[in-house]
Design a protein that fits this description.
- This protein is an alpha/beta fold and 417 residues long.
- It contains 15 helices and 17 strands.
- Helices cover 42% and strands 24% of the residues.
- The strands form 4 sheets. A 6-stranded mixed β-sheet has the order 2-1-3-8-7-6, sandwiched between helices. Strands 14-13-15-16-17 form a 5-stranded mixed β-sheet, sandwiched between helices.
């Protein structure tokens, strides 16, 4: 099957929004055995979209259009496609009910143009939108399938994966279903992961193995095709087992999870409370942790001790440690974690001190980071990082490493219990 992508939106042409949808769809379709030969970006203009449709329809088996399904006048995708395939638009009752319920639950009036989002092309296969309002559609035009998906990535991605992919197998004439499992890794680079798994990746047939780097992490997507769900699981389990035998020490979760979410779940499961002492991270670690519902059961409190005198006078780091070793030191990181644990009466504590940049501090290069952990071992631990990235990335990466180290130590701690 040969596919073509059409992205709709003047904001894409103006460079106001980066077209991440096209990259996502190309990657996903490649994993599913679908060739993407063309990509087109069109503004909010019916004539130009029609011209792009005519060309795509003449050369592709599958045309996927993203964007232009919203409530405003410049959202023209389904009207243009309806005219192109000579069909009328009708209200999809389930989608209309969902839109009305959305406004009712929030006690907000629903403007009439929101009803437009529930319009679908007559005779189309409707793809329900569980993360927004406008449904997607699949329309057959001669030998070409035209698929319409919403533009916002948070709506498009789950609709593609959960609603469209099951239909794709039928389109491809296969009596099989397609299932993926995403493995998430941290602490290993994409190139090293690929090197460690190269023979498995090169020999892949079913399931396929696809590595992908993203914001300091690496994911592996295992994709299997089989008619029997039990056999699908067996094949995925077998492949995952081969992978984890080599790089399992870096595996921290599955699917759309994050390091912080896994840490939160681990703390909650073990009824373990935590406190924090942050310097260059500016309270970002605690902010991310407390964004999860139920975090009050595990988070006791913390300190944002940015200045040296605050570390000493408020947090309680000894003047002797600061004078002898400096605030950018493993000794200071350990003291910060110990004092946070003591003052907040938590089971464990984590601290962050370092140089985010761009200038040196205490003779230390930007990216020099020390993380302290108290409470998981008889004696406090510290970890040293040297991160050669920009200021924001240093902070984000350090927080991820902090989560990763806590997860690793908690596993050892749990084993002892």
């Amino acid at each position: 099957m040969n596919a073509e992508l059409i992205s709709v939106g003047s904001e894409l042409l103006l460079g106001q929004i980066v077209n991440t949808n096209a990259a996502f769809l190309s990657q996903e379709l490649a994993l599913l055995g679908v060739n993407v030969f063309y990509q087109t970006t069109v503004g909010d203009n019916g004539k130009r979209l029609t011209a792009a449709l005519e060309l795509a329809n003449s050369r592709s088996d599958l045309v996927i259009i993203t964007g232009g399904l919203g409530p405003t006048k410049d959202d023209l995708t389904k009207e243009t496609v309806a005219s192109f395939v000579s069909r009328k638009l009708v209200h999809h009752e389930e989608s209309l009910h969902n839109i009305e319920s959305y406004f009712l639950k929030r006690n907000r009036p629903m403007s009439e143009n929101n009803r437009k989002q529930a319009l679908v092309i007559e005779g189309s296969h409707v793809l329900l939108n569980y993360h927004g309002m406008a449904p997607g559609m699949i329309v057959t035009n001669n030998d070409t399938k035209i698929v319409m998906l919403p533009g916002p990535p948070q709506e498009m991605k789950p609709m593609f994966t959960n609603e469209f992919v099951p239909q794709l197998a039928k389109m491809m004439g296969e009596q099989t279903s397609i299932t993926s499992r995403v493995l998430r890794f941290f602490g290993i680079g994409e190139s090293q992961l690929e090197t460690d798994l190269l023979d498995l990746i090169e020999a892949q047939t079913n399931p396929t193995i696809a590595p992908l780097a993203n914001e300091g992490e690496v994911t592996l997507r295992l994709t299997v095709k089989h008619a029997d769900p039990t056999e699908q699981k067996r094949l995925l389990d077998e492949t995952e087992d081969q992978v984890t035998k080599r790089v399992g020490q870096y595996l921290y979760g599955y699917g759309d999870t994050s390091l912080m979410e896994q840490l939160f779940l681990q703390l909650r499961e073990k009824h373990c409370t935590i406190s924090t002492a942050e310097s260059f991270t500016g309270g970002k670690f605690s902010g991310m942790l407390t964004s999860f519902s139920g975090s009050s059961a595990i988070y006791r409190g913390g300190f944002v001790s940015y200045a040296t005198d605050v570390k000493e006078k408020v947090l309680g780091v000894s003047n002797e440690v600061i004078k002898k070793y400096g605030v950018i030191s493993p000794q200071c990181a350990i003291e910060m974690a110990k004092r946070a644990k003591e003052q907040c009466l938590s089971d464990i504590a984590i601290s962050f001190t370092g140089v985010a940049g761009p200038s040196k501090q205490e003779g230390k290069e930007p990216g020099t980071i020390f993380i302290g952990v108290a409470g998981l071992t008889p004696e406090p631990l510290y970890y040293e990082l040297n991160l050669a990235v920009n200021r924001k990335a240093v902070t984000d990466r350090a927080i991820k490493y902090g989560c990763f180290y806590l997860l690793k130590e908690m596993k050892r701690w749990n084993m002892k219990e």
